[in-house]
Design a protein that fits this description.
It is built from 9 helices and 17 strands. By secondary structure, the protein is an alpha/beta fold.
Length: 407
């Protein structure tokens, strides 16, 4: 609907900037709550539009996104550096995998059917607070300049600079979608962490395998460390992992994806103006110690939709204080080398019941459960790290580049 003054000014209730996992998830939950006038701004086709990517999460029973889940796993497996495999059954929880393409099409369809809902292919360039809302200035795919006037703006674009933090690590990875000549994968088992790969001098590395069929899988090489690798280093690591560890005699790489996830105890602001809110990784939705974001984005989006329905606007913290504090301790202990990363994670899977461990990784455990899990970790190094954290200064750090969070 045209506004006054500017012939290219339009008005709407809600503007969501960014069509990634967090932006589209918020659009999904707002339309499910019958919120009118939702506009999603997605970058036009070109260099600003990311390629198709993969998001994973765990859930039980039936969920909102079952129609677009491309793989679901009833068992999870971890391989230690000694080659020992530990397989757990977290029933009734299942590990689920979604590809961004089908997810986008589902949300776009819901937007088209929602009153006043729409998808705008444009590049958002500036957001300015105004009395009673905000203005979003953008350039449409055809070059037309456009101003959107909205009561509420939710911005999921990556931040240009990370907030100051005490710990700065990155989770960086490259994955291949491979097809084998013969059946080599068990589609019921997801390999979350395979530490049978050469470990870097700083941090840790692991393989990650999500079977899509007996002869197809997403195979990734991942590191937790301070600096991402050049693409050719990931390629070499993936080739070695497929050949020496998975022992795939013959395979074809059908496509690839790559990304970098910040692992930091930075405090991400969830508001940049009276009516402008940050969501997704930009708003702190990424779990610092694991890199998972998709599940937290759903929780956050549901709460935002419920608040808007009640006439109030708030973006709740995606992770609680205890979870953020424990993540900071773990990241610092990994960064200093006080704990051995592969031993730490394999130990958790060996000693903690799988459903409780997944709830812990999702930030849904009680203080008593967390205390019990803490006693199953290297208590001395973790306690020493916890005691020193309050005295560490927070420093700025560049934003890690390349790709979008796979989780």
């Amino acid at each position: 609907m045209s506004g006054g003054g500017d012939p290219y000014e339009e008005s709407c209730e809600v503007v969501i900037i960014g069509g990634g996992a967090s932006g589209l998830s918020l659009a999904y939950h707002l339309t499910a709550a019958r919120a009118p006038g939702v506009t999603v701004i997605e970058a036009p086709d070109g260099p600003l539009r990311p390629p198709e990517r993969t998001w994973c999460y765990w859930d039980e029973g039936t969920g909102d996104f079952d129609a677009v889940v491309c793989a679901s796993f009833s068992r999870l497996r971890v391989h230690g550096t000694d080659g020992e495999a530990l397989t757990v059954d977290p029933s009734p929880v299942r590990y689920r995998m979604i590809r961004s393409g089908p997810f986008e099409r589902m949300v776009h369809h819901r937007l088209a059917r929602s009153p006043g809902g729409r998808l705008l292919r444009a590049t958002a360039e500036a957001v300015r607070s105004t009395p009673g809302g905000a203005l979003v200035r953008c350039t449409a795919a055809d070059g037309r300049r456009l101003t959107l006037r909205a009561r509420h703006v939710f911005d999921s674009r990556p931040v240009r600079t990370l907030p100051p933090a005490r710990i700065h690590l990155t989770q960086h990875f490259r994955g291949w979608f491979v097809r084998t000549a013969a059946d080599r994968f068990d589609p019921s088992v997801a390999d979350l962490m395979d530490f049978r790969v050469p470990q870097p001098r700083h941090g840790l590395a692991f393989g990650y395998v999500l079977p899509l069929a007996p002869n197809r899988a997403l195979v990734e090489y991942t590191e937790f460390s301070r600096t991402p690798l050049p693409t050719e280093a990931y390629e070499a690591a993936l080739a070695r992992y497929c050949r020496d560890t998975l022992r795939l005699p013959s395979y074809t790489v059908e496509s690839a994806e790559q990304g970098v996830i910040p692992m930091t105890d930075a405090r991400f602001p969830r508001r940049s103006g009276p009516a402008v809110f940050r969501i997704g990784t930009a708003g702190g939705a990424t779990r610092p110690a694991t890199g998972y974001t998709f599940a937290a984005a759903q929780r956050q989006a549901r709460r935002v939709a419920a608040a808007l329905h009640r006439g109030r606007v708030a973006v709740p913290p995606p992770h609680g204080r205890r979870a953020r504090a424990m993540d900071a301790v773990l990241l610092r202990a990994l960064d200093t080398g006080r704990i051995d990363g592969p031993d730490f994670f394999t130990g958790l899977f060996r000693r903690v019941p799988p459903t409780r461990l997944l709830r812990f990784l999702d930030g849904a455990t009680s203080p008593w459960e967390e205390a019990g899990i803490g006693l199953r970790t290297p208590v001395g190094p973790m306690l020493r790290t916890a005691l020193e954290l309050p005295f560490l200064p927070r420093r700025p750090h560049p934003v890690p580049r390349s790709g979008e969070n796979r989780r």
